[in-house]
Amino acid sequence: MCADMVEATRQTSVDALQRIRETRELVARISPAIRRGGLSLEAFLALSALQGASPRGLSMSELAKSTGATPPTLTRHIDTLAARSMVYREIDVRDRRSTVIHISKIGRAAISRIDEQLDAMV
C-alpha cells in the first residue's frame, strides 16, 4: 500500500512537471503575437478575463484570482490598460467601497486582433 502511494505521488509529480513544460512552451509560442499586439502577457490575460466577464466586469480580487497576478502587479497593469483606454473602472453598485473593472471597445479590439494572430498560428 505504501509503495502504491509513493508511485502515485511520483506519477503526480511527473504529470505536473509535464504540464509546466507544456505551459512554458505555449507561452513561448504565443508571447510574440501578444507583444506584436502591444500587450504584455499579463495585460493580455487580464483583458481576456474581462472579456469573458463582460458585461458585468470583475472586481480586482476576482481579476487577480482569474489571472494569478498579485494585487500590486495587477493594479499596475490595470492602470496601464486604463491609460490606454482599454479598460475602465466603475464603482460597484452592490458595494460602493469596491471598484469593478470593465473591458472597453478598444480593449476588445486589441484582444480580437491578437486572437486572429493566435488562430493563424494553429
How would you describe this structure to a colleague?
It comes from Propionibacterium cyclohexanicum. GO terms for molecular function: DNA-binding transcription factor activity. Residues 1-122 form the HTH marR-type domain. This is MarR family protein. By secondary structure, the chain is mainly alpha-helical. The chain has a single domain (2-121), classed as Orthogonal Bundle (Arc Repressor Mutant, subunit A), CATH 1.10.10.10. 70% of the residues lie in helices and 10% in strands. It contains five helices and three strands. It has helices at residues 2-36, 41-53, 60-67, 71-83, 105-121; strands spanning 58-59, 87-91, 99-103. Strands 1-3-2 form a three-stranded antiparallel beta sheet. A hairpin with a 7-residue loop joins strand 2 and strand 3. The longest helix has 35 residues, at 2-36. The chain is flat. The termini are far apart. The model has no long low-confidence stretch (mean pLDDT 87).
Write a concise synopsis of the structure shown.
The protein is mainly α and 122 residues long.
How large is the radius of gyration?
Answer: 18 Å
Tally of domains: 1
**Total of DSSP H or I helical runs spanning 4+ residues:** 5
Compressed to H and E, one letter per element, the order equals HHEHHEEH
- Tell me how many strands there are: 3
Sheet-strand content, in percent, reads 5-15%
Q: Compute the separation of the termini in Å.
A: 44 Å
CATH topology (level 3) name:
Arc Repressor Mutant, subunit A
Shape verdict: flat
Major beta sheet, strand line-up: 1-3-2
Helix content: over 70%
Largest sheet geometry: 3 strands, antiparallel
CATH architecture: Orthogonal Bundle
CATH superfamily: Winged helix-like DNA-binding domain superfamily/Winged helix DNA-binding domain
| Alpha-beta content class | mainly alpha
Protein name: MarR family protein
InterPro entries: HTH_MarR-typ, MarR/SlyA-like, WH-like_DNA-bd_sf, WH_DNA-bd_sf
GO molecular function: DNA-binding transcription factor activity
Pfam family, one: MarR_2
